[in-house]
Amino acid sequence: MSSKVKDTIKAILFPVVAVILSLFISVFFVMWAKGYSITQYFTALTDLVSTIWTGSFGTQRNTMATLAEVTPLIFTGVANAVAFRCGLFNIGVGGQFVLGMVAAAIVGTIPGLSPIVHIPLIIVSGIVAGGIWGGIPGFLKAKFGTSEVINTIMMNYISIALANYIILRTAFGVPGKAATPMIQESAKLARFVQGSSANISLFIGIITAIIMAFILWKTTIGYEIRAVGINPHGAEYGGVNVAKNAVLAMVLSGAIAGLGGATHVAGVKHLIQDFMVVPSYGFDGIAVALLAKKNPVACILSAILFGALNSSSRALQISGIPKEIVFLIQSVIIIFVATDYIVTYFGNKKKKGEIMNG
Q1: What domain of life does the native source organism fall in (predicted)?
Q2: Is 37 helix (H, G, I), strand (E, B) or coil?
Q3: CA-based diameter of the chain, in Å?
Q4: pLDDT tens digits, residue range 175-225?
Q5: Which residues contact 321 (CB under 8 A, 6 or more apart)?
């Protein structure tokens, strides 16, 4: 069996094993919460799995709520995956998502446009806003060597302050309401079911993931981004411009996050209110990308898992299982995934040592 096939099987198998093990471990907390004895382990396991399934996909209403939760996670997961592929940690995906929301909320209020024009304009505005916001820390990284982690964290707070200033202190906000006006009907994305926030931006997210996978593995641009992420010194020796690709990866990552924010406004919110904190989608997207092993297409499945867990929290609470069990499952999954990265890191280090000594 070739090493490529082995790597593919491992990439698919490990996340699945991580999810299964996290469920088996979380069952002990369900047993504690509901008073099950140790002999009722499999009863508690069945209770947990069935409640998660019912709360996320058991009815049409629950399914639509889950799809609405999954959609932004696809965008933020893919955004993080692109940055990871270049060896960068874009902690600012949440802030870029916010700037995409702001851009969409402003552009969406333009009157007199056809949906054929207005919706693409919304999409482009989110891409541009997020791309610029992601490109700034990318440029600082390439030009001055500053940490993109620190810069993106700080820019998250700046994005919130900027968004709130626009909402509360400019003509784009509604006086006394701490919100922007409702966007025009021509700027709204079609929803799957009346009364549900699930909308066609789900398909935009899926298409985005497929396009990014094609770019990363089938184009010269993607090859260079991945080469920089694997070994920047080796890539530079091979003629790849490391600085340029660091900026490009951050721009692409920010653009995808901004697109997610724009479609979230166009499909779900239809306006934005003042922000107290950065939306959690950006940080959840890190977990989505890690579980997907930095594969944009796999981010779709990973986002479905995390979206289903988030969506089922209310059903868990009703069933007598603390909703915090959702965060526990997610945490255990991340621990297992992180363990795999640590093992791989030391394995590669050992191989390098053997080569040097050999």
Answers
A1: Bacteria
A2: coil
A3: 72
A4: 889 999 999 999 999 999 988 899 999 999 999 999 999 999 999 999 999
A5: 30, 33, 34, 47, 48, 51
One-letter identity of residue 65: A
Q: Where are the domains of the chain?
A: 3-357
Assigned CATH for 3-357: 1.10.3470
Structure tokens that stand for 11 in this block: 């990439």
Neighbour count for residue 115 (Cβ, 10 Å): 15
What interhelical angle do 220-230 and 201-218 show, nearest 10?
A: 80
> In 145-175, which positions are buried (b, 16+ CB within 10 angstroms) versus exposed (e)?
eeebeebbbebbeebbebbbebbeeeebbee
The rounded distance, in Å, linking the Cα atoms of 326 and 239 is 46
* Angle (CA) 161 285 19, round 5°: 150
Count of CB atoms situated within 10 Å of the CB of 218: 10
Q: What is the mean pLDDT of the chain?
A: 90
Above 70 in pLDDT, residue 323?
A: yes
